[in-house]
């Protein structure tokens, strides 16, 4: 019997090194530019998939547990590959990287966030803002015909570095969760450096964040101390003026409202406490306006709001009684017209549908009435 020789075991292909991957991507880019001069068109989805496989092998070698195939669903990967091809075909050599990031990476059923990094270093005919606006419009158009779930975000190359240096949270999310779909050898090395902890926010970026925090807190305090008190003061003044005008008085200025209301106290229309409430709320607002009252505690705000509510309800009650004496309806014409509009009924096939305006539209009308009223003071 002839001696059978053992079949040779196929050798496991050697994993590509980081340098091999980067060289391959640079060669790929050069080949693309050679295909269509000045445009850098891709040949198709397969070319990007080949690059993805190389990047996945590099990720495994570097100890990165996640790969595009593991994280993205097959359908999403196909959609993103198709989108990447279309974007590079449209913008050519100006595209540095196309990166999927955010919730897409986590596998959630949401929009597919895609960062498109564009080289703007030789753009001189328009501003950054104009360039980004045009880019966003074109990227949205491409996304719309590919898949409506794609949500593109253009980043200029110059601002990309600024965002990293300034510690922009969105850019750090892109670096931390991003999966390169197309790369010219720019994003992947930066991402690897980031994951090694070699890219950290500058002291300037840290200072900017704490200053922003302080400023937001100041604006919140200002909202409590001034805006809320201002609204209460204007509510007091408007309600008081309504009753005074109904009684034949001229509409007084805010600083005069309490004195005029005391005249109605003498006419037994309401108790002295309502004139005192008006004086107190107007005085508190003046103190905040002039800066003599720096801070108002939450308990005081609640107390002022309760007094303002009591005052307005009392003025409504007085106005209603005054009009009833004249045989008139309490509700003014604007309110009546609004009620009629909201309670329109349309008969359809024996059913009655109540037609009501959306809440936002009603709120806009209310805001318009308030602004027009305040503008007359």
DSSP strand content: 5-15%
Quickly count the domains: 3
**Strand line-up of the largest beta sheet:** 3-2-1-4
The CATH topology of the largest domain comes to Beta Polymerase, domain 2
Class derived from helix and strand content: alpha+beta
Shape: elongated
What is the helical fraction, as a range of percent?
55-70%
CATH class (first level) name of the largest domain: Alpha Beta
| Spatial separation of the terminal alpha carbons | 115 Å
Whole-angstrom Rg: 34 Å
Mean pLDDT: 73
For the sheet with most strands, the description reads:
4 strands, mixed
pLDDT below 50 for ≥5 consecutive residues: which ranges? 12-16, 31-48, 58-67, 345-360
Return the CATH architecture of the largest domain. 2-Layer Sandwich
Order of helices and strands: HHHHEEHEHHEHHHHHHEEH
Description:
The structure is a single chain. By secondary structure, the chain is α+β, with helices and mostly antiparallel strands. The protein has 3 domains: 18-201, Beta Polymerase, domain 2 (2-Layer Sandwich); 205-330, Four Helix Bundle (Hemerythrin (Met), subunit A) (Up-down Bundle); 338-377, no CATH class. It has 14 helices and 6 strands. The chain has helices at 18-35, 45-61, 68-71, 74-91, 128-146, 157-165, 169-177, 187-195, 203-246, 257-266, 272-290, 298-325, 333-342, 359-375, and strands spanning 95-101, 112-118, 150-156, 179-183, 345-348, 351-354. The strands form 2 sheets. It has a 4-stranded mixed beta sheet with strand order 3-2-1-4, with helices on both faces. Strands 5-6 form a two-stranded antiparallel sheet. The longest helix has 44 residues, at 203-246. The protein is elongated. 24% of the residues are buried. Residues 12-16, 31-48, 58-67 and 345-360 have low confidence and may be disordered.
